[in-house]
Write a structure and sequence with these properties.
The structure holds two protein chains of two kinds.
Chain A (H helix, E strand, L loop, with lengths): L13 H12 L7 E9 L10 E5 L3 E4 L5 E6 L2 E8 L6 E7 L3 E7 L16 H6 L5 E5 H6 L9 H5 L5 E2 L9 E2 L7 E5 L2 E2 L4 E2 L4 E2 L6 E7 L13 E7 L8 E6 L4 E10 L3 E10 L15 E14 L4 E22 L2 E24 L2 E19 L6 E22 L2 E20 L9 E2 L3 E15 L4 E15 L2 E6 L10 E7 L4 E17 L4 E12 L1 E4 L10 E4 L7 E13 L4 E18 L15 E17 L4 E15 L15 E2 L6 E12 L2 E10 L3 E2 L4 E5 L2 E5 L6 E2 L3 E11 L8 E10 L9 E6 L5 H4 L4 E8 L4 E10 L1
Parallel strand pairs in A: 1-7, 11-16
Antiparallel strand pairs in A: 1-4, 2-3, 2-5, 5-6, 8-15, 9-10, 11-12, 13-14, 15-16, 17-18, 17-50, 18-19, 19-20, 20-21, 21-22, 22-23, 23-24, 24-25, 25-26, 25-27, 27-28, 28-31, 29-30, 31-32, 32-35, 33-34, 35-36, 36-37, 37-38, 38-39, 38-40, 40-41, 41-46, 42-45, 43-44, 46-47, 47-50, 48-49
Chain B lengths: L6 H5 L4 E6 L9 E9 L6 E10 L2 E6 L4 E6 L4 E3 L1 E2 L6 E3 L11 E7 L5 E4 L2 E2 L8 E13 L4 E13 L7 E11 L2 E6 L1 E4 L2 E4 L8 E5 L5 E6 L4 E3 L7 E11 L6 E10 L1 H15 L16 E3 L7 E2 L2 E13 L37 E2 L8
Parallel strand pairs in B: 2-24, 2-25
Antiparallel strand pairs in B: 2-3, 3-4, 3-8, 5-6, 5-9, 7-8, 9-10, 9-11, 10-23, 12-13, 13-21, 14-19, 14-20, 14-22, 15-18, 16-17, 19-26, 22-25
The chains are: A mainly beta, B mainly beta.
């Protein structure tokens, strides 16, 4: 297979443009000299294809062909060549070019030498997709180095160490980006949205750890090809399989066991990546009295095929399946029957087909067909019978996206495309399953389409200025069949303001929304070391997760925008200064402000389960988020790490017509993820080639919660009364984690390499509060509760050091 | 209807923990609480008016006396309520007042300082009787944190037929009848001439009990926010709904009267919210606390916060005799032995009368065995 080199950088002068175009055609110019590079594995001599080469000055280079070679014609002079490749130490060579030169660069595997390697895309097409600004990338390597709770490598937990990313705590079913709510982030795995990104109610994320190539979080300038969420896009990509032989990876841990395989099926044509993780280790529950009848199993599996059908046609087919199954002994009553077991069963089945059609050296067409199907259900066996009622819902997503990418000049690339999305939500079904004392319920499905056209471009306007811009126009249609209520709009929406109902047939358009979403970013290279960046991004969100709690449950309902629930929209401006100091230090300061309209809030006591009309339970308001993010990174050397501090605030306002349609009297109040101060620090020491020690410290202001404005006794029950929202803060959160990785103790390059990972999560055992709530007093705490007729309780998760040992291996 | 979300806490029980925490308040002074209902049962219509206020740094509920409270029906009929002299802040309709199904009722209140409040009208629903009533003894009903053990309860369950042609909401309250032998008690004194009289010779912490001068039953009303919606069972016979839960604290027999109310949708939502705020705000994914919004507002200043609901409801009763003498297990209470005044001479110790009231009767209750 021959692959075309993609050039990753160039200065903006016409001369360079000219040179570049000529190189693109493969014709050399007489006064230049040919530099022929061959990149190989230092030990085996295996050619390394798709290694990244950067030649300075001139920001020339590209990626090597599959035979490990790259040829570049350069004017005579002195050059520094740096070569990076996944799993190898970076190599930097200085050369003087005054005649044609052939150079073999041997890369040392990190299996024998531990040096941090920044993983960048190993699929050349991604280099074109990657925008210049506004993205934070977490590489597989960085992920692996972070100490993980119970030994599980985790994308969502790792992202929380980056500035601007937070969560509700350990059991948070997702992340909060710059103070936004969890459903304001679009989480994609190989182009497909993941509606329930965690296992075990938020303790671990679902992404198979071994197959991940990178996780890009767009929280500033979101590329125009993405749309549909107002806070961020998390684009998780799995490796594109390209192994020359069979490669196995796996691990055995306390919570789960995993195995992944990468292999060629037909060399140079068809490759496979498969990854399976199973969490079936719930047998240890049997020894704990309280959990002896509890079952908790989860699993995920991913299959990815890479098929180079012809030189121009590259296909990727990804399938992803995730399932959680929990059984808990808990007496619950649903309508007329009692169940003493609750079974929770959540299932995700996603798939995507990505066709990459290279038209010429500079142009390719990408078409992606994506499908997501998420079905959570709760099964309730009737006590004393063999019958079982099932509560379920689902969200189906289908998308067809095609885009043309073109590098018009060495310093200009653009792409444009269209996307059609179909959302189908089945908000709730109750199957009695033979239980006679409950009626069947099937809420009507909601269908909606989102169409979008977009254009985006990256232009290096000069030696100093780069511009990354995009424009997306989205139009949304909510479709029949559906029965829609009409309301007297002089009153707030409520059951008592209903004026009638209107029936819409299949295919009828119920309501539409639409609008422009401009995206703009620029980078000004003030000096060789100093860069200034600025970005603006507008986003609209037509699908939201509704949950009257801090974080959604896997069963929380997905709701498409409709006649009464307007889509959310946001505008974000951000600007930053970045400085690259010597010896691998990078400094950055970034400020942002985001304004959100029509964010969702909930009326007191709002409930959505099996509710036909939910608009009467919802409120919409405005949000403001702003912050300042400082970061310091050290990416080279034996000791690496980062430190960041974020000051950020988020405030919401819901000012309805009357008391019950307002929150906090219509005043601004702190949002659920308002944590003014956050500090993260990661420090990794590679003491010698066998050992890596990592420390990870995080500290942040506690998130807001609501304390009562008093209490009343009604019907012999002491009831806390609340008229404000988020008027207090839970205590500050801080935690130190430690990990010790023992790598390839024999230090010999073998086909089988194993490593032991010892982690301690929450090293000093702080009982961080996850939530504080008010409830009836339980006896024995008179000193703490004082004369309050109501007690207060703090929930903490992992309030003690959590020690774990896991083993992982690679075979190639 | 809400499905319990506490399971996450149960599930993560070993990974997490729940600790008591000092309760903090952001007190708002002078909150008015108006609570009441008009029912179709004579003698059951009442309203209570209280104000929560800060007193010496503590939050107390102060009854509001001297208000004028009137129930207005949809035909313009007005029923003034009278303040109960024994229970300030409680206003009762005349004994003969009984609401009528299908008619609407609203409450109007004028406080002595001239502030005027009104509820929105509520239509009195149809009463739905209990078809059967039975007792299930649960030896491990609740976990008592203080005793660190499960305690036993008698659960009283009801079955009834829900009408198909209407949306129904239910609420249960109950009254417990106990046979009493002690009719009054005096601290630091003795009972003479119908009242307790201080005696220097008796320390203040010594209490003497005085026996009743005839048969006497106490009546303990238990008000609960236990509500139910027929949303998923419309038209079905609903079986086994718990209407009362009586702690096995003694072996004395009881008579339990279940009051099954049919309530309005507004009252249901209000009670659900109370239950949620009072009992269900825990757990990892707890509902966000919300304001208690009722149906009562200040006529002159709609912005004033008023807590409470005035509802219209129909009530149907069923009684069951709870024989606890043979119940297996040990009751949680040791049983109270009356401490009688020392006999010197015995014939001088008077007996106390069992004064007829809402909370006491000399008449053997119907159903007592």
């Amino acid at each position: 297979m021959k692959s075309t080199p993609y050039y990753i950088g160039h200065t903006g002068s016409l001369l360079w443009l000219f040179l570049f175009l000529i190189f693109g055609k493969g014709i050399a110019i007489a006064q230049d000299h040919r530099l022929s590079l061959s990149v190989q594995d230092a030990e085996t001599g295996t050619p390394l294809g798709l290694a990244t080469v950067l030649i300075q000055p001139g920001e020339r280079g590209g990626v090597t062909r599959t035979d490990g070679t790259l040829g570049v014609d350069l004017p005579a002079g002195e050059y520094e060549i740096s070569v990076n490749f996944l799993g190898y130490r970076e190599s930097i060579r200085r050369v003087t070019l005054n005649e044609p030169l052939s150079l073999t660069i041997k890369l040392e595997s990190t299996a024998t030498g531990l040096e941090t390697v920044e993983v960048v895309g190993n699929d050349a097409s991604d280099l074109l997709e990657r925008p210049l600004l506004g993205v934070q990338r977490l590489s597989k390597k960085q992920l692996d180095e972070l100490p993980a709770v119970l030994g599980e490598t985790d994308v969502l937990k790792g992202l929380q160490m980056l500035p601007g990313v937070g969560s509700a705590g350990e059991a948070s079913n997702g992340i909060s980006v710059r103070g936004g709510s969890i459903d304001q982030n679009l989480v994609l795995l190989d182009h497909v949205p993941v509606f329930n990104p965690t296992h075990l109610f938020g303790l671990f994320s679902v992404f198979p750890p071994d197959g991940i190539r990178s996780a890009d979080l767009y929280q500033g300038n979101v590329p125009a090809r993405f749309g549909g969420r107002v806070a961020s896009v998390l684009d998780v990509r799995m490796k594109s399989p390209s192994a020359e032989g069979l490669e196995l990876q796996g691990g055995v841990g306390l919570i789960s066991n995993r195995l992944s395989l990468e292999a060629p099926i037909v060399r140079d044509k068809l490759y496979i990546l498969g990854a399976v993780r199973l969490g079936l280790n719930d047998f240890w529950f049997d020894v704990i009295e309280q959990l002896k009848d509890t079952r908790a199993n989860f699993g995920d599996a991913l299959l990815k095929l890479r098929w180079q059908a012809a030189e121009q046609h590259l296909f990727h087919l990804t399938g992803f399946y995730s399932r959680d199954y929990y059984q808990i002994d808990l007496i619950s009553r649903l309508a007329g029957f009692t169940s003493d077991k609750n079974i929770y069963d959540y299932e995700t089945l996603n798939g995507s087909l990505d066709w990459h059609y290279t038209l010429n050296d500079r142009t390719y067409l990408q078409t992606v067909l994506a499908s997501a199907d998420y079905t959570p259900s709760i099964r309730l066996p009737e006590t004393g019978t063999a019958k079982e009622a099932v509560l379920s819902s689902s969200i189906l997503y289908h998308s067809l996206q095609t885009s043309l990418h073109h590098r018009a000049a060495p310093n200009l690339q653009w792409s444009g495309g269209v996307q059609l999305i179909r959302y189908q939500s089945r908000p709730g079904t109750l199957h009695p399953g033979g239980v006679t004392s409950v009626n069947a319920v099937a809420l009507p499905a909601e269908t909606a389409y989102e169409t979008a056209v977009y254009l985006e471009g990256e232009w290096e306007a000069g030696e100093h200025l780069s511009i990354s811009t995009g424009l997306r126009y989205g139009h949304y249609f909510q479709m029949g069949p559906l029965t829609v209520r009409t309301y007297d709009h002089a009153k707030p929406l409520g059951d008592d303001s209903v004026t009638g109902q209107q029936e819409y047939n299949r295919g009828a358009v119920i309501t539409t929304y639409g609008g422009w979403e401009p995206r703009f970013g620029l980078r000004w290279q003030a000096t060789e070391r100093l860069t200034l960046k600025a970005a603006y991004s507008a986003n609209r969100q037509y699908l939201q997760n509704i949950f009257n709690a801090t974080t959604p449950l896997p069963t929380s309902r997905w709701k498409t925008a409709d006649q009464h629930i307007r889509p959310q929209s946001s505008h974000l401006v951000s600007a930053g200064v970045f400085y690259t100091a010597g010896s691998g230090y990078e400094l950055g300061v970034e400020a942002y402000f985001r304004h959100t309209r029509d964010l969702l809030e909930y009326k007191p006591g709002a409930e959505f389960l099996l509710k036909k009309f939910v608009e009467t339970e919802l409120l919409q308001g405005e949000g403001r988020a702003f912050g300042l993010e400082f970061s310091l990174r050290k990416t080279a050397g034996r000791n690496t790490g980062w430190f960041n501090y974020t000051f950020s605030r988020v405030f919401n306002q819901v000012s309805g017509a009357d008391f019950s349609n307002r929150i906090n009297q219509g005043e601004w109040y702190p949002g659920n993820f308002d944590r003014p101060h956050t500090l993260n620090a990661v420090y990794t020491v590679a003491g010698n080639p066998h050992h890596t020690l990592s420390l990870n410290f995080t500290m942040s202001s506690g998130r807001p919660y609501t304390i009562p404005n008093g209490f009343v006794e009604i019907d012999d029950v002491g009831v806390p009364v609340f008229f404000e929202r988020n008027n207090a803060r839970i205590p500050a959160y801080h935690r130190l984690d430690f990990s010790w990785k023992i790598l390839n103790p024999g230090m010999r390059k073998r086909r089988w390499t194993g490593e032991w990972i010892f982690t301690v999560y929450n090293l000093y055992g702080r009982k961080n509060a996850y939530n504080i709530y008010y409830g009836p007093r339980t006896g024995g705490y008179g000193q703490i509760f004082g004369n309050s007729p109501i007690g207060a309780y703090r929930i903490s998760i992992f309030g003690a050091p959590i020690v774990s040992l896991s083993y992982q291996f690679k075979f190639r | 209807m809400r499905f319990p979300v506490v399971y996450i806490t149960v599930f993560l029980g070993t990974l997490g923990c729940v600790d008591p925490y000092q309760p903090a308040y952001h007190h708002l002074d002078k909150l008015l609480i108006i609570q009441g209902r008009a029912t179709d049962r004579a003698g059951d219509t009442e309203v209570s008016i209280n104000e929560s206020t800060l007193l010496l740094g503590s939050y107390v509920s102060r009854p509001i006396s001297g208000a004028v409270a009137i129930i207005v029906d949809d035909q313009g009929g007005q029923t003034p309520l009278m303040e109960d002299p024994e229970f300030p802040g409680t206003y009762r309709a005349p004994e003969v007042f009984a609401g009528i199904t299908g008619r609407s009722y609203q409450l109007e209140v004028t406080l002595s300082d001239g502030r005027r409040y009104a509820s929105t009208p509520e239509q009195l629903p149809t009463g739905i009787p209990v078809d059967s009533l039975y007792v299930v003894f649960d030896p491990e009903n609740r976990y008592n944190e203080q005793r660190e053990e499960f305690t036993a309860s008698h659960r009283i369950l009801v079955d009834w037929r829900d009408p198909r042609d209407q949306v129904n909401f239910y609420q249960w309250r109950y009254r417990i009848f106990r046979e009493e032998i002690v009719c009054t008690s005096c601290d630091g004194g003795v009972y003479r001439d119908g009242s307790c009289q201080d005696r220097d010779s008796i320390p203040a912490d010594v209490r003497y009990d005085y026996l009743c001068n005839g048969p006497c039953w106490s009546i303990t009303p238990v008000n609960t926010t236990n509500v139910f919606s027929d949303e998923l069972v419309n038209g079905q016979t609903v079986r086994g709904k718990e209407a009362a839960n009586i702690l096995f604290e003694s072996r004395k027999n009881l008579l339990v009267e279940i009051n099954q109310y049919t309530i309005t949708s507004g009252q249901y939502k209000f009670n659900r919210l109370l239950t949620e705020l009072a009992l269900e705000s825990g757990g990892l994914n707890a509902t966000l606390p919300g304001s208690i919004v009722g149906n009562i507002s200040n006529v002159q200043d709609p912005e004033e916060i008023v807590i409470g609901f005035f509802g219209a409801s129909a009530r149907r009763d069923r009684r069951i005799f709870l024989r606890r003498t043979d119940t297996e297990g040990t009751p949680t209470g040791e049983g109270y032995t009356p401490k009688l005044e020392p006999p010197s001479p015995p014939e001088n110790i008077p007996r106390a009368p069992c004064t007829e009231s809402l909370y006491r009767t000399t008449q053997k209750p119907e159903g007592w065995r």
